[in-house]
Q: What sequence folds into this?
């Protein structure tokens, strides 16, 4: 009898130990599954790099209204906070023609702008003082760059001008210090008959080192390239007839310049506001600050042959 009790006791003890072992194994497996889940969750989290990616605007960011001719819409406001602005070509079935001038003006966060080909003109000072703006895609059908459009965009590095452009108005790129590459139209089959560069268009663009104007540029305005201190080479259009006062004033490094035969008009004017520096200095050395051109004043590195041709074609020879 005692022997049977002992055997039964041993069997129950073995069963108990077996059950405990399975419970521990299950608990361990549960811990492993939990750890695996944590690792998976960590893997699916967005990286810091992806969070830092720049944000591109969406069509829904923009409000709009019909334009006055009912052939398109003008964007009236921007509700987004994107750094890369992409203006849609079509909204509500109609082409986008323009936008309110104040929408982007002075926005310090914008880094790039892409404009659709439906746009033929840009509002005055539209992107002025967008100091983080680095790149711009202009529409192929653009005819006029309005006054002060990119004035004070100190981070803008390059710009490619469309073939159909007819005018770059006053101060369009004034103070764009980082601007190092300006590409003028090159396709003679599609470029406009005449392109006029207004006053102070590239004033103070110290990043410019060389520039080649398209062969349809017929006039350059007052102080257009003044204070482009590192500009060393300029290729003028053979159709250029008029060069405004102080056009290349204080382009200290300018030494490579062609003089088109058509260039015979050097308008003169009276300066009394200090535009060209200390007027007492010029009065002392040149006798007057009236009826002057100063188009190449302080361009001391221009070769004598270039100076002689300019003088022969009517330039008064002031201030080389």
A:
């Amino acid at each position: 009898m005692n022997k049977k009790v002992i055997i039964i006791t041993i069997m129950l003890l073995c069963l108990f130990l077996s059950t405990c072992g399975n419970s521990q194994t299950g608990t361990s497996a549960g811990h492993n599954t939990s750890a695996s889940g944590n690792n998976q969750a960590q893997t699916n989290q967005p990286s810091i790099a992806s969070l830092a990616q720049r944000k591109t605007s969406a069509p829904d960011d923009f409000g709009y209204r019909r334009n006055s001719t009912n052939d398109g819409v003008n964007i009236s406001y921007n509700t987004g906070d994107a750094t890369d602005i992409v203006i849609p070509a079509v909204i509500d079935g109609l082409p986008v023609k323009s936008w309110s001038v104040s929408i982007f003006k002075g926005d310090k966060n914008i880094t790039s702008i892409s404009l659709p080909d439906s746009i033929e003109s840009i509002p005055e000072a539209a992107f002025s003082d967008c100091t983080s703006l680095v790149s711009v895609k202009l529409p192929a059908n653009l005819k006029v760059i309005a006054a002060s459009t990119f004035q004070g965009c100190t981070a803008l590095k390059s710009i490619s001008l469309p073939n159909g452009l007819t005018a770059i108005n006053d101060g369009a790129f004034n103070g764009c210090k980082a601007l190092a590459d300006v590409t003028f139209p090159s396709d003679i089959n599609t470029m406009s008959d005449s392109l006029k560069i207004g006053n102070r268009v590239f004033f103070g663009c110290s990043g410019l080192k060389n520039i080649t104007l398209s062969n349809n540029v017929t006039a350059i305005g007052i102080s257009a390239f003044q204070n482009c201190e590192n500009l060393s080479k300029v290729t003028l259009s053979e159709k250029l007839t008029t060069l405004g006062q102080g056009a290349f004033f204080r382009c200290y490094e300018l030494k490579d310049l062609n003089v088109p035969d058509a260039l015979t008009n050097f308008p003169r004017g009276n300066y009394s506001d200090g535009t060209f520096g200390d007027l007492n200095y010029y009065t002392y050395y040149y006798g007057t600050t009236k009826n002057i051109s100063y188009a190449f004043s302080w361009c001391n590195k221009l070769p004598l042959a270039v100076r002689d041709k300019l003088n022969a074609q009517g330039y008064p020879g002031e201030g080389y």
The chain has four helices and 17 strands. Helices lie at 2-44, 48-51, 279-286, 304-312. The two ends are 131 Å apart (CA to CA).
